[in-house]
Write a structure and sequence with these properties.
Layout: E1 3-4, E2 16-25, E3 28-38, E4 43-47, H1 54-61, E5 69-74, E6 77-78, E7 89-92, H2 104-114, H3 122-128, H4 144-157, E8 162-166, H5 174-189, E9 193-198, H6 201-204, E10 210-215, E11 218-223, H7 225-232, H8 240-254
Helix pairs in contact: 2-4, 7-8
């Protein structure tokens, strides 16, 4: 069953489009005709169980994995045809990657030096992400949560129109999760497109404008929570977890 929301089936130009994207690791199909679209000023949640294809989709959007088939468009242009400076994207990976010899603060200084026009300051992010006491530590001396916060800070220091976040809440405590949600909502208010991959439905529920439900590399449904509730005939007080489980059940029953 593929229930589409406003992201498909309407005759209006979308800022960002994933069109029938396929990708396989050898004989293992990771993306099987994945399609969805979104506009600036929105937070889009890619929702699915582990192994559903979310991380592969993210890596294709980030241009790390060119699709075997299909297209990904930004402002109507194939992203793989764009120069790096004309595809304004930033990325929070699911696994932090650092220069092991640089301190936390030096990572921020380095990122800011590469992207000097960014309106975000290192000092602001140090304070908001509560990292000041760790600023002189190297990555191996940081906790998992602090390493994750450093990756978030480095991504936000870049200049971007699209922010990709692959399981960004991993390793964060409730206070840190709340801070990250606020930061993501601020990007939305600035007209940025945020694409958020998560299997934590309760965390993603209150921050996303649109959901793309993925299973086995396919889009089962996309749209706002209200649209998905209507399509699944669930009550208005139902959770996104209930929506997800209903869509998966309907998909299994249909085929």
């Amino acid at each position: 069953m593929a229930v589409q929301g406003y992201a498909a089936g309407k005759e209006r130009k979308m800022d960002f489009e994933v069109r029938q994207v396929y990708y396989s690791y050898g004989k293992t199909v990771a993306l099987d005709g994945l399609s969805f679209s979104a506009n600036r000023g929105k937070i889009v949640g890619l929702i699915g169980e582990n192994g559903a294809g979310k991380s592969t989709a993210i890596k294709s959007i980030y241009r790390f994995l060119p699709p075997d088939k299909g297209m990904i468009l930004w402002d109507g242009k194939d992203i793989f045809s764009l120069r790096p400076d004309t595809y304004p994207i930033s990325y929070i990976p699911d696994t932090p990657v650092f220069y092991e010899e640089l301190s936390l603060l030096e990572h921020l200084h380095f990122t800011k030096a590469v992207y000097p026009q960014s309106g975000t300051s290192e000092t602001e992010l140090l304070e908001r992400l509560d990292m000041r006491e760790h600023q002189n530590k190297i990555p191996s001396a940081l906790s998992k949560g602090t390493r994750q916060k450093l990756m978030i800070a480095m991504a936000l220091l870049r200049e971007f129109e699209i922010l990709i976040a692959d399981e960004p809440f991993s390793g964060l405590d409730p206070k840190q999760i709340a801070t990250l949600k606020t930061l993501l909502l601020e990007q939305k208010s600035k007209g940025k497109l945020v694409i958020l991959s998560s299997h934590l439905l309760d965390v993603a529920e209150n921050v996303c404008d649109q959901y793309v439900i993925i299973k086995k590399g396919k889009c089962l449904a996309s749209g706002s929570k209200e649209e998905l509730l209507a399509s699944t005939k669930l009550g208005r007080n139902s959770t996104m977890e209930a929506v997800y489980l209903r869509l998966v059940e309907q998909n299994e029953m249909s085929g």
